[in-house]
Design goal:
The protein is built from no helices and ten strands. It is mostly beta strands. It has one domain (17-126).
């Protein structure tokens, strides 16, 4: 039996961990109600991401895929590899920053919505959930 282990430096991979959406904004800058917020966004050190809108059971995610982040430019892109629910309205490339409260802010992208229609968000604010088994 073997297992892969990814060692990473948090200064070069600051996004790694589990995050919960606390605010979202439309493309005109107006704050949106929570609706179906991103309950859990997991960004792993190996470049995989998992997105959960509605908690169901441990290990369940609405969709999963891969991401790429550039700490120098703040660029962030993702691709969906698989999903458990139909997802609409994703925009898979944008920017990330950290605000003064240490919250992760994504702009000019959308993690989408469950179903065939949804309110498109263009900016998200996330708080770190802490260390998890998903890192």
């Amino acid at each position: 039996m073997s297992i892969q282990v990814f060692l990473y430096d948090t200064s070069t991979r600051p996004l790694v961990g589990a995050w919960r959406e606390v605010r979202r904004f439309n493309c005109n800058g107006r704050e949106l109600g929570q609706g179906d917020p991103v309950n859990t966004l997991v960004l792993r050190a190996d470049g995989h991401l998992h997105v959960l809108f509605r908690p169901f059971e441990f290990g369940y995610f609405e969709y999963w895929g891969r991401y790429a982040a550039d700490s120098a430019s703040g660029g962030f892109t993702f691709e969906i590899i698989g999903q458990n629910q139909p997802i609409c309205c994703t925009d898979r490339g944008g920017k990330f920053t950290f605000n003064g409260q240490g919250q992760l802010v994504f702009e000019n992208l959308s993690f989408g919505a469950i179903g065939s229609t949804g309110r498109r968000a263009c900016k998200y604010v996330f708080e770190r959930l802490g260390p998890t088994a998903f890192n």
